[in-house]
Amino acid sequence: MDDLRKGKIEVCPHYFRVDMPFYRKHIANFLPEKVVDIHVHAGTRKGVDPRVNPPEFWPKWVTFGHDMTVKSILDAYIKLLPGKDVSVVCFGSPDRDNVERANEHIKEQSQLYPQVSGFALTLPEWSAQELLTRMQEGGFVGMKSYSNMVKSGKKPEDITVLDIYPHHQLEIAQEYGWTVMLHVPRPGRLADPSNVDQLHEICEKYPDIKIVIAHVGRAYYPEIGRKGLDALKDLDTLYYDISANTCGPVFEYLLDTVDTARILYGSDLPIFAVRGKRIWEGENYINYIHKADWEDSHTRRCKEKEEQFTFMLYEEIFAFKKAAEKARLSRDDIENVFWKNARRLLDYSF
Ligand SMILES: [Zn+2]
Question: For residue 133, what pLDDT is reported?
Fold first, then answer.
């Protein structure tokens, strides 16, 4: 992952020995020729020095907080999905002090590259007018915010969906029919009662907003996916992106309960370009990461097997493929998930 810590993907012997054979065997023929990735982080931050500022969460260990620029993302996709015609929806990494810089970068780059569009990182304290101006001036096709954007004095675990996207912003989003991507807050993730209640309230009050639940609601282990999807299955306007999720049973349950017209491919690059394998133990997920040089409750090594690990992005697509085969998805369904739904949702000509 030294390359990710410099904001790029580089080819290396492992790429030709492990990744490309996996790609050709499991991924290349499954994916359509065209792919739209609705969940990509891009920006210009040069990262942190872990000796000065030790990361508090594993994704930051993967990249040292070093962003990939839009150009690096497009370059990475040439290596990750060779031969595919890939378009991306980009937004910045979720830090309050990154909002201006990231939005500016995405705005600039989406004007240069026809296959790039952007979501704005938004702050909940922006007035309706400020939000509207920023969305229009940046040419953004959607909004993305996070619980750490909320400055309310509440404990992180108490922050709600409506703290992240307050009513006065949702009213504007409703008026313009925007796409709003939600990284669900709270320890209960997709199944958290407060999230479930507020999503019901939001869908009822703002039927023209297209809400995309990122990472299938961070349901990285089966039970939480089952509970959450059950509690939300009456909301037939919610979309789900599969980014950063590798949980086969969650994908199976998703395909059982949600129409494929509302499922979207996303990657969570650059994080998911790390090589590894994810398992779950009860209510925790564990990533076995190739050559991980840090320790935390989500990270382990498996030195005997890690030389066979490939990109976690491939693990995500492979897990979805297996669930799709079980659910007998048609080629049309696969095309919808991997690009056509995004094009329809964003009304954007990728
Ligand atoms: Zn993300």
Answer: 97
Q: Which of 208, 199, 203, 202 is nearest to 176 (CA)?
A: 208
What contacts 172, CB < 8 A, 6 or more positions away?
Answer: 128, 131, 132, 178
Report how far ligand 1's centroid is from the alpha carbon of 41 (Å).
Answer: 6
Domain definitions of the chain by residue range: 4-346
Spatial separation of the C-alpha atoms in residues 262 and 310, rounded to whole Å: 28
To the question of pTM greater than 0.90 for the whole model, the response is yes
Work out the pLDDT band at 222, boundaries 50, 70, 90: very high
CA of 6 to the centre of ligand 1 (A): 19
Count how many Cα atoms sit within 13 Å of the Cα of residue 172 in the half-sphere of its side chain: 18
pLDDT digits (tens, 9 = 90+) for 298-316: 999 999 999 999 999 999 9
Q: How close is the Cα of 170 to the center of ligand 1, in Å?
A: 21
Which residues are found with C-beta within 5 Å of the ion, ligand 1?
268
User: Residue 224: pLDDT above 80?
Assistant: yes
Q: What is the pLDDT of residues 99-134, one digit of tens each?
A: 999 999 999 999 999 999 999 999 999 999 999 999
Q: How far apart are the CA of 58 and the centre of ligand 1, in A?
A: 13
Going from the Cα of 268 to the center of ligand 1, the distance in angstroms, rounded, reads 5
Check whether 349 has a pLDDT greater than 80.
no
Q: 146 and 164 in contact (C-beta within 8 Å)?
A: yes
CA of 319 to the centre of ligand 1 (A): 19
Q: Give 217 Cα–ligand 1 centroid separation in angstroms.
A: 11
Q: Write down the CATH superfamily of domain 4-346.
A: Metal-dependent hydrolases (3.20.20.140)
